[in-house]
Structure formats: C-alpha cells, structure tokens
Design brief:
The complex is a heterodimer of chains A (70) and B (137).
Chain A (H helix, E strand, L loop, with lengths): L2 E3 L1 H7 L4 H8 L3 H8 L7 H11 L3 H4 E3 L6
Antiparallel strand pairs in A: 1-2
Chain B lengths: L1 H31 L9 H25 L8 H31 L7 H24 L1
Classes of the chains: A mainly alpha (70), B mainly alpha (137).
C-alpha cells in the first residue's frame, strides 16, 4: 500500500525552500525532492523529524493510499 | 576533529600511493639491475598523483563551499549505495563465473595475470563511476 505525503504543500505553505529544509534536517536536496514526489519513503526517524520540524499531526503529513490497494 | 581526521586520511592515502610507486621503481631496479630504471620518472609520477588527488579534493571543497550545511550523504544515499553494491556483488560473482566457464569451454585453459590486472582495473573504474553516479542520484 503506497504512502502518500503532503510535505510539498506544507513546506510551501510555511514558505520554506527545499535547500533550507535540507540544511535544517541534515538531508540532501535530492532526498527532499524524492520524498516530495513520493518516490522515497523516509525512515521512521526522518518521518518523526519531519513531523517535529513542520509541527503538524502525522495524519496531516502522511497517509496510506487505499485506492491503489484495490 | 573531523577535518583533522579527513586530512590525515588524505595524507595516508596519497602517501601510500607515492611510497608504493617509489618502492615499485626500486624493486624493478633490484630485479633488472642498476641503470634499468630512469629515476626521472618519479617527477611525472608525483605530478600525476598530486594532480589526481588535487582535482577531487578541490571539487569536494567547492561543493562544501557551495552547499555549506547540506550533507553529501544521508539515509537515502546509504540505502541506494547498499542496493548498488549488492547488485555489483552478484553481477561480478556470476559474471566472472560465467566468463570463466565460457573461456574454458572455448579452449582457454590459462589466463595471463597481466590480462587479469587489466580486466580488474576496468571493473574497478566502472564500479567507481557507478558509485559516483549513485551518490548524485
């Protein structure tokens, strides 16, 4: 079941650039891009860091795509 | 502390290459007799090693200055590299086995070590190139 995230929308809403986010979370810009495009699922540690960084509830940032399961 | 270790690693690595090259020249002279080796070869050898070491070092410095706080490696890069080296391991193991069986069936029953060195050099270069590409993905 694929995991979908809303990181791009949340990041843009908060006015944060990809480079700033990469610097703050100590990840590469390519990783930020891959996560935002749903090509890479972050580890639990990075997911928790992302939730703390944007200060949003987990269900607002990540959810399971049930449609693809069917 | 981290930077000092990095400098020490660079010094050790390139020092070992220079020492190995000079030792090689000395051994060739010992085996072949005095006057066989032209010691002027040491100069282009040193220039080559320093040039070869300097270019990647400058590129890494330039990258660090450009992206001051963004790391070069993170969890995604490590996971990609792990997958890459696993695939490389299988390809090299199965590929070399297949190549050996094919050569044997074609009637080649002995391999010159020089040829093996050439093949391995090519293989190492390819693996290194793949590593750099994966790191940038």
């Amino acid at each position: 079941m694929p995991v979908i995230n809303h990181i791009k929308e949340i990041r843009q809403r908060k006015g944060i650039t990809q480079v700033k986010m990469a610097e703050d979370l100590q990840i590469t810009r390519q990783t930020v891009n891959a996560i935002e495009k749903n090509k890479y699922n972050p580890s639990l540690e990075l997911a928790l860091k992302l939730i703390a960084y944007f200060n949003v509830p987990i269900e607002e940032m990540f959810y399971l795509d049930h449609r693809k399961e069917k | 502390m981290k930077k000092r270790f990095q400098v020490l690693i660079y010094i050790f690595m390139y020092g070992s290459i220079v020492a190995g090259a000079i030792l090689g020249l000395y051994l060739v002279e010992r085996v072949e007799g005095p006057g066989f080796v032209d010691y002027h070869l040491v100069i282009p050898m040193l220039v080559g090693i320093i040039g070869g070491a300097g270019v990647p070092f400058c590129i890494s410095l330039w990258n660090k200055k450009r992206n001051k706080k963004v790391p070069e490696v993170d969890e995604r890069v490590i996971s990609l590299l792990r997958k890459y080296f696993l695939i490389v391991l299988y390809i090299v193991l199965i590929g070399s086995g297949f190549a050996l069986v094919t050569l044997y069936s074609l009637g080649v029953h002995s391999i010159e070590t020089g040829m093996l060195i050439a093949v391995l050099s090519g293989l190492y270069s390819l693996i290194g190139l793949g590593f750099l590409i994966i790191k940038r993905l």
